[in-house]
Design goal:
Blueprint lengths: L1 H5 L6 H8 L3 H12 L6 E11 L5 E10 L4 E7 L7 H15 L12 E7 L10 E4 L2 E2 L4 E2 L4 E7 L7 H10 L9 H12 L1 H29 L4 H8 L3 H13 L1
Parallel strand pairs: 3-4, 4-8
Antiparallel strand pairs: 1-2, 2-3, 5-8, 6-7
């Protein structure tokens, strides 16, 4: 496990979410550079944040942040191109909208939102460092101005700009090779500090357990295996499987 931790980059979403967890300065750095807005002030951060639509389907956001102006930001790390498709971006954006407007409030008060995908490869394929997607009026080529923004950042792009240096930092395994101290400090803590390494190991163990539970739920829905067989196959205790079955029956 230690060897795996040493090989982590900020492009690995599990490592990134730990480095950015409660790390307001790091999230502000990314948003300020990506959006070219040096005055962004982040007030709230939630990592691996689950949202549900009206049908109860969940989506887990890597980073969900709110700034001092009430704007909402979703930052997603995607190494696989298929996880950053246009429909995924649309779904993230629509789900955030459906969750941020309190009952009884006017739709005109809907907060401005940004869904930001940082992708290991050039997801759009036009050899640009960053892509801004906004709705516009086709006949007049004017921005529609609905307050919804989707951005793709190409982590494979390199230059001497702030964005190029930031993507360099997301792509290296050695914290001391990073340009930005706030990112280097966070990565160093989880890679080299004894307490940080223990925290990272625990997070990885929890992640593995969560993945096993998700697999167990799929197996329960298929009804092809007994509870005992599922527990043995996934190396989970029988009471855990029984509790998952009970939760599924109550939904």
């Amino acid at each position: 496990m230690l060897q795996r931790i040493r090989g982590f980059r900020l492009l690995d979403d599990d490592f990134m979410t730990k480095c950015f967890e409660e790390n307001t300065e790091a999230v502000e750095l990314v948003l300020r550079i990506v959006l070219n807005k040096p005055d962004i002030k982040v007030e709230k951060i939630q990592t691996q944040y689950s949202m549900k639509n009206i049908q109860g389907r969940s989506l887990r956001l890597d980073i969900y942040a709110t700034d001092s102006q009430g704007m909402r930001y979703n930052i997603e790390i995607q190494r696989a191109d298929k996880g950053a498709g246009a429909k995924r971006a649309r779904y993230n954006s629509s789900l955030i909208d459906s969750n941020i407007l309190p009952a009884g409030f006017e739709v005109e008060n809907l907060a401005e939102t940004y869904v930001i995908f940082i992708t290991e490869n050039d997801a759009i394929g036009r050899n640009q460092p960053i892509y801004h997607i906004d709705r516009y009026i086709k006949e007049t080529e004017e921005i529609f101005g609905d307050g919804s923004h989707i951005i793709y950042v190409n982590a494979a792009y390199r230059d001497d700009t702030e964005l190029g240096k930031l993507m360099h930092d997301f792509s290296v395994t050695e914290p001391d090779d990073m340009n930005y101290k706030v990112l280097s400090d966070a990565a160093n803590y989880y890679k080299k500090d004894k307490e940080g390494i223990q925290t990272m190991c625990k997070a990885m163990e929890d992640m593995i357990t969560d993945e096993k539970k998700m697999a167990a739920i799929r197996m329960l829905k298929s009804k092809k295996l007994t509870l005992e067989e599922i527990a043995e196959f996934l190396e989970l205790s029988l009471p855990v499987i029984e509790e998952l079955e009970k939760e599924q029956q109550e939904k």
